[in-house]
């Protein structure tokens, strides 16, 4: 049973604890994270969602992420999620923005993760993803034009950061 810290809309952590799968009171939020993964050569990592996923099965997305667990701050959560979903450890992690989704009772912290690992060392998470590909600006445009991809998040599509 996954436990989360409860937050107010302004990002202040409360003493309450939330449980995944149970309803969240209207005035409380759980913290989630996502990150765009960029290699030091400027390529972006795209992962294909598992075909059994409830939302967007088989779609490509340019992010790794999930819910922050009880006791984690967003930076700890994004590092854990990136490691779990890809096997990657960032050499640099840059906070991008915080978005509050009132309808979902969710506070989303978005990051850019810079990695320097060999590109063929990605470890896919069995129940989450089925393939991956790296790509630069042209590949990114091709992926968004020619393959199923999730709706844009704060760090994807036209907001991708290239070094």
From TrEMBL:
Gene Ontology MF terms: hydrolase activity
Protein name: NUDIX domain-containing protein
CDD domains noted in UniProt: NUDIX_Hydrolase (cd04693)
PANTHER family according to UniProt: ISOPENTENYL-DIPHOSPHATE DELTA-ISOMERASE
UniProt keyword annotation of Hydrolase present: yes
Organism: Streptococcus gallolyticus
Alphabetized InterPro entries for the sequence: NUDIX_hydrolase-like_dom_sf, NUDIX_hydrolase_CS, NUDIX_hydrolase_dom
Pfam families noted in UniProt: NUDIX (PF00293)
Domain Nudix hydrolase residue range list: 28-157
Signal peptide: none
């Amino acid at each position: 049973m996954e436990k989360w810290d409860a937050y107010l809309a302004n990002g202040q952590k409360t003493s309450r604890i939330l449980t995944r799968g149970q309803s969240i009171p209207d005035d409380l939020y759980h913290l989630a994270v996502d990150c765009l993964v960029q290699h030091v050569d400027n390529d972006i990592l795209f992962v294909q969602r598992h075909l059994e996923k409830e939302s967007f099965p088989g779609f490509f997305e340019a992010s790794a992420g999930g819910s922050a667990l009880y006791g984690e701050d967003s930076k700890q959560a994004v590092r854990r999620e990136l490691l779990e979903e890809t096997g990657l450890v960032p050499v640099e992690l840059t906070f991008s923005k915080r978005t509050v989704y009132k309808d979902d009772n969710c506070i989303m912290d978005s990051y850019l993760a810079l990695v320097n690992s060999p590109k063929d060392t990605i470890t896919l998470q069995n129940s989450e993803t089925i393939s991956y590909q790296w790509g630069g600006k042209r590949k990114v445009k091709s992926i968004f034009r020619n393959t199923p991809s999730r709706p844009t998040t704060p760090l994807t599509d036209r907001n991708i950061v290239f070094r």
